[in-house]
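Consider the following input, taken from an annotated entry for DUF4230 domain-containing protein (Sphingomonas mucosissima).
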Amino acid sequence: MNRDGTLKNAVLLVTIIVGLALTVAIGVATYLGYRYVTEEKLVSTDKDGVATAQVVAATLYGRSDLRVSQLSGVVQGTARSSRLWGWLNASQVVKAPFEVNYFVNLSRLDASDFRMSEDGRRIEITVPDVTVERPNVDLARTSLNNVAGVFVTRSAMAEMGAKVAASAQRTAAERANNAENRAKARDYGRQAIARLFAGALSAARVDAQVSVRFEGEAPPANGERWDESRSLKEVLAKAQ
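Applying the prediction step yields:
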C-alpha cells in the first residue's frame, strides 16, 4: 500500500473514532436529560393516569461510617416574598422538629492507624474527624406555620415554601457545626469507637486499653513511648 493509501486509511479511522465518540456523548446526554425530566419534572401517575404518592427513583448505597452522636430539637425558619415591585409583600414563619447526625468514617482505617504502647497495655487509634450530616427538618410536623400578607399568590407561597425550608435547614446546620456541639460529638465518638474496638480486641485475647485520637489532634504529651515496629496484624497474631 502506498503512502497516500495509508494516509487515507488513517483519516478514515480518525473519522470513525470521532463519530463513535460523538454518538456515545449524544446518547449519554440524551439519557441523562431523559432521566432528569422524568424524575424531576414530570408528574408520575398510575396506570389510570392519576397522580399518586410513589417512589420515583431510589438507590441503595453501602456505608461504613459509625453514627456517634445526634442533635435534635425544634428549629424556626423564616421567608419573605415580594410581588408587584414591592407593593405586595408576604412572609412566613415555621417551627419544625429537626435531627442532625454525626458520623465517623471507619472505612478509611488501616493497620497504620493503630499504635501500641511499648509495654503493650494501650492501643491508640487515629480516626478521621467527625462529619456532620445535612440536617433533616421534618416540615410535615410543623408546630407553627404563620403566613402573613394582604394577598399571597400561589407562586409566592411556593417561593416562600422553598425559602423557609432552606432557612430552617441552614439554621440547624449552623447549630450542629458550632464548636461546642462538634466537641461533644468527638467525645461521644471517642467513647463509641473505644467500646467497639475494645470488644473486638477482647475477643481476640488482646488485653489492652483503647484510646481514640482524631486526625489533626496532637498526641498526648505524657512522655509515653509507643512501639512503632509492630502492626495491628502482628499484635493480634501474637495473641492467638
